[in-house]
């Protein structure tokens, strides 16, 4: 399959690299790492074995790539201002667009701009780290939960999911993208948020402090209440499962804290702002989310 | 009047210094500044004129002071563990105890330990800065709102208020100490709290950001709702007044932020914890206060 990757951070290089490794025709839009990657390729240190792709098709402009079968968006939502311009040249009438962004709103945003294209959302449950130009470390294989904007999964989406699985990306395809997004928020809202707002702490500190852990649960309850008000169903047992899961992760640094400490933009609107607005729209009061969002907006400004 | 001052920070030196200046017999319990103050006295740079008290009665142990007519507590609530022990030697059967602490709980704490003494609470609206051993700067004269624990004001409390006024301390005496404490919380909870939790910002940043200012109002509403549930009456116009007052203060650094940045203990339980517990006890949900409190507890730990 002819694939274009927009965004050459850890996520773009890792997913694109795995797809190229199993024979897909992958084109990378690059920026600062262009020279390094053209010269040295991509190196992935993965938990199932390291690999090196010496020859990578890298470009400085997406016009040079042209229309592809599948466009993968691996930019942060904080770069969405420039996304349509970067994406348009590789999107033809039959291009499917898969967004790997966090939080809410990316699929809606893409559907508005590319209304006749197939829009997919993929939620990445994975831990990746860019350790140098073209170099990515992967700590555990992780998975993608993928769904289609606006409806149940079509045969084409299933084929894309199968391709991702052949590349070792462990893709589950689901009929309800929105539900998956909200379920991921049940974790991201408290743990990504409190890890920054409580003074740059890892998840074990949140789990280990009775007050903070209670607050994490309170935030999860608000997210589930909002999802319920918006017509979805998330079992309340899910909260205990997430707490247990997080306890098992030990001293984990959520991705928003990694961005915060690296002075990169944090996806405040996608992860906290948009869920808050949707909850308020649905007539719900979510005061803990509101408090956290308003603090994060200030804490993460000027990045 | 024979007066003992427990706590020789900016507050203790300033109030004690002013009282000594008008002829009261003031005894200071000192710690690290003992030598410097015995040698050089107390210097106050005040907005109504500077003054120097070359001879100060300073002590290292309160046993050396003995029972006084009025004991003034100018320690932070975070030092309450050691307070009874420091205070007991200067408290006789007729000693009145005036606490100048922030937040809730100090008068209750003192009444439990000294049940037969007159317990007063004084809320200080003032900006003081200790600039060196025995040296205090005062930026505007400010005032004290004073009341009696557990009831309306007695003639004796009125006399103490008159003495404070003779010393230029601008003391208002009120029949409802608890109401005054909660009214002060309406300001302290949002502005002291958000100034720390939003990443060490001055009040103009809180007032100037729509989201944070809305959150400050939300916190004020919760405090007023809690006060109402506890049987007090605070007019909701009070919120607008506090916002206007704060706007007029410009780039102001709340005292809790000053303590936080100096790595001194912050009065988290007195200002946020105790109001939260009293609200919950009264059956009220105060989720914004709860969120702020839980974050502050972690942000201000290990100090």
Account of the 3D structure:
- The structure is a homodimer of 303-residue chains.
- Chain A is globular, with a radius of gyration of 19 Å.
- Chain A folds into two domains: 174 residues, 3-Layer(aba) Sandwich (Rossmann fold), CATH 3.40.50; 121 residues, Orthogonal Bundle (N-(1-d-carboxylethyl)-l-norvaline Dehydrogenase, domain 2), CATH 1.10.1040.
- Chain A has an eight-stranded mixed β-sheet, sandwiched between helices. In chain A, strands 4-3-10-9 form a four-stranded mixed β-sheet, covered by helices on one side.
- In chain A, helix 5 links the parallel strand 11 and strand 12.
- Helices cover 46% and strands 20% of the residues of chain A.
- Chain A is α/β, with parallel strands linked by helices and 303 residues long.
- In chain A, helix 6 crosses helix 10 and helix 6 crosses helix 12.
- The first copy, chain A, is built from twelve helices and twelve strands.
- The model of chain A has no long low-confidence stretch (mean pLDDT 95).
């Amino acid at each position: 399959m002819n694939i274009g990757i927009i965004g050459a951070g850890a996520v773009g290089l890792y997913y694109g690299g795995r797809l190229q490794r199993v024979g897909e025709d992958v084109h990378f839009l690059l920026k600062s790492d262009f020279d390094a990657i053209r010269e040295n390729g991509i190196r992935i240190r993965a938990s199932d074995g390291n690999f090196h792709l010496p020859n990578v098709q890298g470009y400085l402009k997406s016009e040079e790539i042209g229309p592809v079968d599948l466009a993968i968006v691996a930019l942060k939502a904080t770069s969405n201002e420039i996304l349509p311009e970067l994406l348009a040249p590789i999107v033809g009438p039959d291009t499917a667009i898969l967004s790997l962004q966090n939080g809410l709103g990316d699929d809606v945003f893409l559907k508005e701009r590319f209304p006749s294209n197939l829009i997919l959302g993929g939620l990445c449950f994975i831990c990746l780290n860019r350790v140098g130009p073209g170099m990515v470390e992967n700590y555990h294989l992780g998975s993608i939960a993928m769904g289609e904007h606006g409806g149940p999964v079509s045969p084409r989406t299933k084929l894309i999911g199968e391709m991702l699985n052949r590349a070792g990306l462990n893709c589950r395809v689901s009929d309800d993208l929105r539900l998956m997004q909200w379920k991921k928020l049940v974790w991201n809202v408290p743990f990504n948020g409190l890890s920054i707002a409580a003074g740059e702490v890892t998840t074990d500190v949140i789990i280990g402090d009775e007050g903070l852990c209670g607050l994490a649960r309170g935030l999860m309850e608000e997210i589930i209440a909002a999802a319920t008000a918006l017509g979805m169903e998330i079992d309340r047992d899910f909260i205990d499962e997430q707490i247990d899961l997080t306890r098992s992760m030990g001293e984990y640094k959520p991705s928003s804290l990694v961005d915060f400490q690296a002075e990169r933009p944090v996806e405040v609107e996608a992860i906290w702002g948009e869920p808050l607005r949707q909850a308020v729209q649905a007539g719900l009061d979510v005061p803990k989310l509101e408090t956290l969002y308003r603090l994060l907006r200030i804490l993460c400004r000027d990045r």
